[in-house]
């Protein structure tokens, strides 16, 4: 327990962005720290680091009704990069999960506004979704780089009948 009173060396890697949170009895503040070695006082300071290299988050398949009443299944992925580690750490609780929820909602809204034919023949779906997600996430410290639609198909329902014996 006495070792908690001594300063400790930490390293922020080149692919990380980090925030040092200072909680002194008379004042609290945060500082963005760049890659390198730092001394922290564990009793008064903590650090949180995040990966700043491009990351991809998968969007699970979801079934949606189109404007013309067709049921489709759609899934994809979002590629993003953290551009402001301080905002990403302090202003969003879980940016991966929040980004998935926002992307699924945006896809559902956009899909329900178009017909199946428009969705299958249109090539602007990825770009439209990227622009909408980028407009929604400026305060998160993220930059949306790409949105990939990996699966878009009409749902076919098959009923299996079993004879009673």
Describe this structure in words.
With 165 residues, the protein is of the alpha+beta class. It is 25% helix and 42% strand. The chain has 4 helices and 8 strands; from the N terminus they run βββββββααααβ. The protein has helices at 85-90, 95-112, 116-121, 125-136, and strands at 8-12, 16-24, 27-33, 36-40, 45-51, 55-65, 71-82, 142-154. The chain starts with 7 loop residues before the first strand and ends in an 11-residue tail after the last strand. The relative contact order is 0.17. The mean pLDDT is 88.
Give the helices and strands, then pairings.
Layout: E1 8-12, E2 16-24, E3 27-33, E4 36-40, E5 45-51, E6 55-65, E7 71-82, H1 85-90, H2 95-112, H3 116-121, H4 125-136, E8 142-154
Antiparallel strand pairs: 1-4, 2-3, 2-5, 6-7, 7-8
Helix pairs in contact: 2-4
């Amino acid at each position: 327990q006495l070792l908690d009173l001594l300063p400790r060396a930490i390293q922020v890697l080149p692919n990380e962005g980090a925030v040092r949170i200072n909680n002194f009895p008379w004042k609290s503040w945060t500082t963005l720290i760049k890659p390198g070695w730092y001394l922290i006082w564990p009793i008064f300071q903590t650090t949180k680091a995040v990966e700043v290299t491009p990351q991809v988050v998968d969007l699970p398949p979801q079934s949606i009704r189109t404007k013309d009443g067709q049921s489709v299944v759609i899934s994809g992925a979002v590629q993003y990069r953290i551009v402001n580690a301080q905002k990403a750490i302090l202003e969003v609780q879980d940016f991966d999960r929040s980004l998935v929820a926002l992307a699924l909602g945006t896809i559902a809204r956009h899909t329900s506004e178009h017909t199946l034919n428009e969705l299958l023949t249109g090539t602007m779906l990825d770009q439209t979704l990227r622009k909408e997600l980028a407009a929604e996430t400026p305060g998160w410290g993220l930059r949306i780089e790409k949105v990939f639609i990996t699966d878009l198909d009409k749902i076919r329902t098959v009923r299996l009948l079993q004879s009673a014996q």
